Amino acid sequence: MDFFKIIDDLSKVDADVLGRFDSRRAVFGSLGNIAKRSALAATPLFLGALFQKAYAGTTSTPVEVLQYALTLELFEQDFYAKVKASSQYAGASAADKAAIDQIKGHEDAHVALLRTAITGLGGTPVASAPFKSAVFAGLTTFAAQLGIAQLLEDTGVRAYKGRAGELLGTDLLTVALQIHSVEARHASKIRYMRGQKPWVNPGDDLAAHPVYTSGVTGPTSTTSPFGYGIPAYTAASPVESNTTQSNVPITTGLGATYTAADAAASFDEYLQAAEVLDASRAGGLVGA
Amino acid sequence: MSDNLQPRSADEASFAQPLYTPIKRRSFFMYAGATAGATALVLAGCSKDSDSTPVNNGISLGSGDVGVLNYAYALEQLEAAFYAQVKASTNTGLSAAETAYFSEVAAHEAIHRDFFKAAINRDAPGKILQNLTPNFSNIDFTKRLKSGTDTKLGILDAAKAFEDLGVAAYNGAGKLIKTAAYLVIAGQIVSVEARHAAYVRELITPNTFSSSDQVDASGLDKAMSPMDVIAIAQSFVTEKLDASTVGK
User: Mind telling me which InterPro entries this protein's record contains (chain B) (predicted)?
Assistant: First the structure.
């Protein structure tokens, strides 16, 4: 636990971090005094309390971003655990089983990594985010399971993108990106197994699913169902068939002419936390 | 320009280890055939290339966010040129399905290249990296995959190398970006590169889409610094590039 590294990282995310501590001079002062007498400053629990005070009332903290990531990883982990315990998986080819095993292994590793990081920052990791058993029971074929796997992986790819900006300039961002591209590799493989193109495109058999569109179907909150805070939902995020990036129309604005399908496939889109947790997407599949 | 056309070492090890030695280069020339070897030596003899002039660090990619954008632009130029050449090649050994997919990948990479060009010219007029001259002399565009005795990379070998390198490059560059909007764009592109990488890996060896040579025990993909990435990419670019100030 490198306290000053955390402060440094936080200062990159939040330029006011030192001001937050400074305005709570009593807290910061006591930290200095205690640190002189003991190693308490290096105690995760104490740091957690300090950060909670410093950040009370703000939209998000790095810990909350990590909690959100952990929620998604737990959700995927539970889904693949259910797949591996199913008769459909038992009947799949050795190669397909190996693919699922490889993916499940990464989700396990991500869960472990994020738990450690959250604990290290003084947070209490989200305990569980199960895939609904009743929904899973309806996936009567291995192909149906893979269809959901594609939706989950492509959701993960969009979800990590949606929070990256909150980790701007930090080492936590690098870790998030390193997880993000693994999710994209998983998505590519699952799509390939399903006979779909490895990249999101308007010709996908699931292209109309809300995972590839945007917006919410119900009221939103800045507190997630898992207890931690999430950024306030603003307007709908771009949809995956989007062909304009950074105000540049990709099909016509680049000198050469590109098809709408190629323009859409060249850029994956982000989703905000409220959209991912919406009942039309992951939020509708998580539960007992 | 001709004085820059030094063929690069073509063995695969040199790709993984860009700091190839003169001995390695010489051993390549020994089995690369008399004509190629002689041509290379002639060109090397009249070279004014900066390789041997430590004072010249090459073309700077720039600093700050513009540096990161130019860095991405350089890599996308390289990828786009590679896939354009794959697309233009006949007798590649690729299946019809692979050819069709690679045609789409070619479009994706051309879009990335053209997008960066447009964005840099708009946001940082006059600071864009020049058009690079690719050097694909160690790629055999008539080979789907390198076989035991081949000295050059096959199409899939090169595609895998470019895509995995691209993923590691974006992952490593993310934290250098200071403007959130650019980070979002980089994130939107890197996952497409990762999809490409996984697809190409599957074509080479099934179930290597995220295997342990690329994804570590913590489930993390590679992340590389601009200097490390350019050191590898350099063997495919004629102009010498300097990434030392990217993001700074």
Answer: Ferritin-like (IPR012347), Ferritin-like_SF (IPR009078)
